[in-house]
Design a protein that fits this description.
By secondary structure, this protein is α+β, with helices and mostly antiparallel strands. Helices cover 40% and strands 25% of the residues. The protein contains seven helices and eight strands, in the order E-H-E-E-E-H-E-H-E-H-H-E-H-H-E. The protein has a six-stranded antiparallel β-sheet. It has a two-stranded parallel sheet with strand order 6-7. The longest helix is centred in the middle third of the chain and has 14 residues, at 96-109. The model has no long low-confidence stretch (mean pLDDT 89).
């Protein structure tokens, strides 16, 4: 059973997903966050149209993702995670520049050139950057990471467990 705060690392067989996995040399092309509102399971994610809240069943039917779910084993306030995630819905755009230019350059050179200030970073995010921001997961001083980098972090972290 998915719970508020779970991070889903996703993939599917479509061209864009396969391309992302190829460029990042990984098995994951997307990252999303689970939140529960009453008995309703929802997904908060960053897609091309920005960050939005979606019903889990409709999300799964539309996108057909295969995924692994990770849950923190540390105590946390579920309302804090829920409010932080939902606050970005409809106000944060997708960061195409990071997706198309910054991450490929960083993967090729090994250097992080993220010189955007905190305000600009908060106005645009890619999927895994959003889930990392919600949970304050930083790699090399930034939330900017690929879904594969997020997976690599979660699978070895003592603070996160694979649940599905």
């Amino acid at each position: 059973m998915l719970e508020t705060g779970d991070i889903l690392l996703c993939r599917r067989e479509k061209l864009l997903s396969r391309l992302i996995m190829r460029v990042t040399k990984g098995s994951w092309s997307h990252s999303a966050l689970v939140i529960k509102i009453g008995n309703l399971t929802c997904i908060v994610e960053s897609q091309a149209n920005g960050i939005h809240l979606k019903d889990y069943d409709q999300w799964l039917k539309k996108w057909g993702y295969k995924y692994e779910a990770y849950r923190t084993n540390k105590p946390f306030n579920k309302n804090d995670i829920l409010h932080k995630a939902v606050a970005r819905c409809g106000t944060t755009r997708y960061d195409f520049l990071t997706f198309i230019i910054r991450i490929p350059i960083r993967l090729l050179t090994g250097k992080n050139k993220d010189r955007r200030n905190a305000f600009k970073r908060g106005k645009k995010m890619i999927c895994s950057e959003f889930t990392a921001w919600v949970w304050k997961i930083r790699l090399k001083g930034t939330y900017e990471m690929t879904p594969q980098e997020q997976y690599n972090y979660l699978k070895v972290s003592k603070d996160w467990d694979l649940i599905k």
